[in-house]
Structures are given as C-alpha cells and as structure tokens.
Write a structure and sequence with these properties.
- The chain is an alpha/beta fold and about 500 residues long.
- About 30% of the residues lie in helices and about 15% in strands.
- Strand 5 and strand 6 form a beta hairpin.
- Helix 12 runs parallel beside helix 14.
- It starts with a helix and ends with a strand.
- About 50% of the residues are buried.
C-alpha cells in the first residue's frame, strides 16, 4: 500500500511538472483532527440570486470547488471557516444582534442546515465565527441594559456589560444615568462582562445551539480582549474549552490572538488552537524568509514554534496563514509569481491546520480599508455569474487577470499550484500532525525539516540547488512541485531542486 501511495504521489508530481495539472484530484479522507481550512466572507463569495450579495446557497453551489474527492477541478480543502453569519447592522457582521439566527441577506437556517449536510458529504468540516467579546449596541441584551438604566429597575442585563460610574478610559462611552460602558473596538460594539455567571450560561447555550446544528467548532474573535488581563483571559478560555468539549469532545476551537508570540503561546495552555500571526503578513517570518532566501533560518523558526506549542499542549495545533480579512492580501506583498507559489507550499506543508483566505489561491489583492480586503471572489474574468458586488466603500482594487475558471484551465496558474500542493500533502498524513525537526544543511538557501516519516525541502533561492539524500535522511522522492516547471530530480543519491521548488521525501 505504501508503494502504491508513493507511486501515486510521484505520478501527480510528474503530471504537474510536465505542465499538466490534474483536472481530477483524488484526495483521500483526512482522518487527522487537523484540517486545511479555507476562510470565507459569505457576502463576497458567491451570489445565488443575483441581488449582488453572496449567500449560503451560493456557497453551497461552490462546495465542489472547495472539495469533492470524486469530482473535477477541486481545490482540496477539508474545512471552511465562515466569517460571522449572524444578523448584524454592518456588512462585516462582527456586531451581532441575534446569536441564534442567520442574517436574512445570507439566507435561512434551513440553508445553513443544508450547507452542513452538503459539506459533510464532501468531507468538509464547517466552523463559524463566534463573536463573544462584544455584541452590537442594537442587541436586545444591550437595549435592555440601557432601559434598566433609564428606568432605574433591578439590574440584570446591565450586568452582562461593563458599566462604570466614571469614564475610566478612552474605550468608555456615555450611557443613561451618568454611567459609561466599555467598548474596546467601537462605541457600537459594547464589551461583554464574562464575570457574570448568567452571561457565561448564555454563551454556552449559544455554543451548544450551533454545535447541535452540526458545526465542527468555532473561530473565536478577539480572544485576547475578553479581559484586560492575560491571566483572566486564560482562565476564561480554559473554562470555555472544557465546557464545549463536554458538548462535543472533538470540537475544533481556534482563537484570534493578534499579538506577539509571548502573548500568543500561553493561550495554547487553554486547549485552544491559535492563529500564527508572527509568521503571517508582509513583515512576518514567512515573507521575510522568502525575501532573504534564508531557508535555514526559516526551518529553525518552524521547529522552534512547533516545540513551543508542544511544550504548552502536546496536541496543540499550529494555524499558519499568509493573510486574512484584517491584513493586506498576500499577493500584494509577494508580487513575484514564483515566490507566491513557493509561499503556498511553505505554509501549507507545515504540520497543523493552515488557513487559506478566499481568493488567495487565485492571487486576489486588497489592502488599506477593510472593504478592500473583502472584495468579491472572481469566479471568472469574463462571466459575471455568481460574482457579488464589492462591499460598499471599497476602493478600486486590482483584480487578477484570470478568475477561477481561467486558472483551472491554465496548467501554470497559482490555483493549480495550490491544488497540487494540497493533493500532495493529503498523501502524507504526518504533514498534518508530525513533529517538526529541522535538518541542518550546508546550503542555507534550503529549508528542510522532518515531520514524522516525511521530509520537506524548499529551495528559497533563485538558483538550482543540489543536496545528497543522505544529508536529508530520505530514501525516495515522495512528490514535488516546481513553480518554474523545471523538474525536481533524484539521481545518484542527489536531490536537485530548481529555483523555488519544493519536494517531499519519504
């Protein structure tokens, strides 16, 4: 069986390197608890009814694109993260007014239930954004709290929020009765008070509701802002993780801790997975390594980060990404097409659960204001069917020359590179949960590490590089990808990697 899998991986690599990316990608089921995730802003993804707004029915119509092991032209992800789908007065929906409903612009609860069922048939787990650091100022809880203040009635919902008698900081805003309320991000997003046991009960009921609907877990917004204390944040999320696991033992929970490693890493002690912000963005470890061509340093950092996670939680999950809805898109800070493909291979082949931002696989750009980072998915450069309007206020953003349809037909496209990397990874289970161990090489342009029984080697330079299999500890080539189309080869015990190419050895 191992030989058959190896032959299949080599055949896939040869097809790609010969300039013919496979139109049919056979992706075996991933039995690991880790997934390759795809982040989706539903409003900009696919419009099913022509009203200009993306919706759940549109997303359902594109599930085969995301993963269909028996179909053609599939990307090959095994999980999707939906940015907030609850009713909200804003386009981004991070100010929720009803935690138990779907925003009418996106569809109905029946649409959501169908999405879960259809995704499950394709081996796709669905996680949703759970925004519990704050609510909308139009949420019934907050409106009731304000009414309590006006009427002087017995406080109940006041205790759900952080009201004070004095303005104790710039994040506090006036309320009736001479009070002030905390709102860290915006005065229309009042912060919740997680010291209140009744509120914690409400939060747990919300989580239970969606877990019973079939979600695999949650992306947890603003995880570091629940309290103004690291210790109290860790206590809260430990409670939340334990409570959720009593409902669903194999729940996937990933927290947004947008900070440096000294603040991020302790969150692993709570049981959360955590997004790896230090490696992401234009100034993150991955892009700096691409720009410097220092593969040895990158391998060291990957090993160190993996070790730091495991010290805090042996089952901790590294969640790498290049960009997301809050950062400039990666195609903007990685303009070179070969390095863009190399970047995909680098972050997708690190054990853990990487996250692809929708449109990243076709080179969409966008930076500056938030609306620019959440523009419409380009399904085709010539056919507007299913393409939503950009969010109101979005400035002119350069669209890729090719949309999904054109890139699927282009053997050398970025999209087909993503497909090839994900298909290659799926054939090596240890690239989901193996421990990262750096392999020291004389050529510092090579990033090499072992993960279980797989060895990953990237050439971060614009020059061809050769390395002895003995130095890598590898036996045979288990697959490869090459942005330039030049062949990766093994001859006389020497692995030759063309510029920016990646290989997996077994």
């Amino acid at each position: 069986m191992k030989k058959l899998i190896g032959y299949a991986a080599i055949l896939l690599a040869l097809l790609f390197l010969s300039g013919c990316a496979p139109s049919r990608t056979e992706i075996p089921p991933n039995t690991s608890s880790r997934r390759d995730f795809y982040e989706i802003f539903v409003g900009s993804f696919c419009d099913s009814d022509g009203d200009g707004l993306g919706d759940l029915q549109g997303l359902i119509s594109k599930l085969d694109y995301l993963n269909n092991p028996r179909g053609r032209d599939t990307l090959g992800v095994s999980g999707i993260w939906l940015m907030p789908i609850n009713p909200s007065p804003t386009y981004h929906k991070y100010d929720v007014t009803d935690y138990y409903a779907v925003d009418p612009g996106y569809g109905t609860m029946e649409d959501f239930e169908r999405l879960i069922a259809e995704a499950r048939e394709r081996g796709i787990d669905v996680i949703i954004d759970l925004v519990i650091n704050h609510t909308s100022s139009k949420h019934p809880w907050f409106l009731a709290a304000l009414e309590e203040l006006r009427s002087g009635s017995e406080p109940r919902y006041q205790l759900y929020y952080n009201f004070t008698d004095e303005r104790v900081g710039a994040d506090y805003y006036p309320a009736p009765g001479g009070k002030f309320y905390e709102a860290h991000f915006w005065n229309e997003m009042p912060d919740l008070n997680m010291d209140n046991e009744a509120l914690r009960g409400e939060i747990l009921n919300i989580a239970r509701f969606w877990l019973e609907k079939g979600v695999a877990g949650f992306r947890l917004d603003a995880a570091r802002h629940v309290y103004n204390s690291q210790a109290r944040n860790l206590e809260f999320w430990t409670w939340f993780v334990d409570a959720c696991r009593d409902i669903k033992e194999d729940i996937f929970l990933v927290g947004e801790v947008w900070s440096g490693e000294s603040e991020i890493l302790p969150f692993y002690e709570t049981g959360l997975a955590v997004f790896n912000f230090p490696f992401a963005g234009h100034d993150g470890t991955i892009n700096r390594s691409l720009n410097s061509g220092n593969g040895g340093r990158l391998a060291s950092e990957l090993e160190r980060w993996d070790r730091e996670i495991r010290l805090r939680n042996p089952d901790g999950i590294n969640c790498l990404f290049l960009s997301n809805h809050d950062t400039g898109r990666s195609a903007g800070f990685i303009p070179d097409p070969n390095r863009r493909k190399l970047a995909a291979a680098v972050y997708l082949l690190v054990p853990g659960s990487p996250f692809i931002y929708y449109g990243e696989e076709i080179g969409m750009t966008g930076s500056g204001i938030d609306e620019n980072k959440r523009t419409a998915m380009l399904w085709s450069a010539s056919d507007p069917t299913g393409i939503p309007r950009n969010p109101a206020g979005a400035e002119q953003v350069r669209a890729p020359a090719q949309g999904v349809a054109e890139q699927l037909a282009d053997r050398n496209s970025l999209l087909n590179y993503y497909r090839a990397v994900l298909a290659l990874k799926a054939r090596h289970p240890s690239l989901y949960d193996g421990e990262v161990v750096k392999i020291d090489l004389e050529n510092q342009g090579l990033c090499a590490f072992r993960a279980g029984d797989a060895i990953v080697v990237h050439n971060l330079t614009g020059e061809s590089a050769a390395v002895a299999l003995g130095d890598l500890g590898g036996v045979a080539l288990g697959g490869s990808v090459s942005p330039t189309g030049a062949s990766v080869s093994v001859k006389n015990g020497v692995l030759t990697l063309p510029p920016y190419a990646s290989a997996i050895l077994t």
